[in-house]
From TrEMBL:
This protein's GO CC annotations: plasma membrane
Top-level taxon: Bacteria
Keyword Isomerase among record annotations: no
Protein name per UniProt: Alpha-D-ribose 1-methylphosphonate 5-triphosphate synthase subunit PhnL
One Pfam family this sequence matches: ABC_tran
Entry-linked InterPro entries: AAA+_ATPase, ABC_transporter-like_ATP-bd, ABC_transpr_LolD-like, P-loop_NTPase
Keyword Secreted: no
PANTHER family hit by this protein: IMPORT ATP-BINDING PROTEIN (PTHR24220)
GO molecular function: ATP binding; ATP hydrolysis activity; transmembrane transporter activity
Amino acid sequence: MENLLEINDLSKSFELHNLGKHIHAVGGVNIHLKEGEFVGITGKSGSGKSTILKCIYGTYRLKEGSIFYNSSKLGPVNLAQVSEREMLHLRKHEIGYVSQFLNVMPRTTARQLVKQAILEMGGEHELADKETETILSHFELDRELWDSYPTTFSGGEKLRLNIARAMVKKPRLLLLDEPTASLDQDSKWKVKLLIEQLMKEGTTMLGIFHDLEFMNDLCDREYNMQNGTLTFC
């Protein structure tokens, strides 16, 4: 398999049975990513951008099209057909996802969340402690919050923690769903620094953005989404 990720003729619709409605989200999407590439998708809210990422991550299941991913352990697999156990393995070890929202286990501190992400990748406890502190400091998360529960955090603090947790794993494939939403300029710059570092280390990324300025000098290719249709810019 030449590419790390190959999306072919991806289409996704939703049936709202209680309302008797059929909603067409995206259709005929084709995207190929080589290892180490960064591809960006722009478009208005509701155009279908997030649907693509959720189909890759297995949040949504496909009925049409294929999503082939060249896994380091499983080999080439169609993410539209893998078992739930295989998808969980890929999420844990190979595919990262950053969204605008933070879903975490209750009674788990910010420090524990980030450290657990490192341990899942096979890191040692001492190294995990050090890397946890480094990335929390990078995003300037107040030290008083490190051992607090994220349910008490502001929206911006939750987003910075979510980004830190995903990026510290250095996944092979990183999906970015509006990673700079609700962040100030300084925090956006810190996200950009880490993205550039991950790119140098070979992480492949597919991201959706509203902030076009943020994407400058980052993307190898850019697509635009309108009414569920993807076009190359």
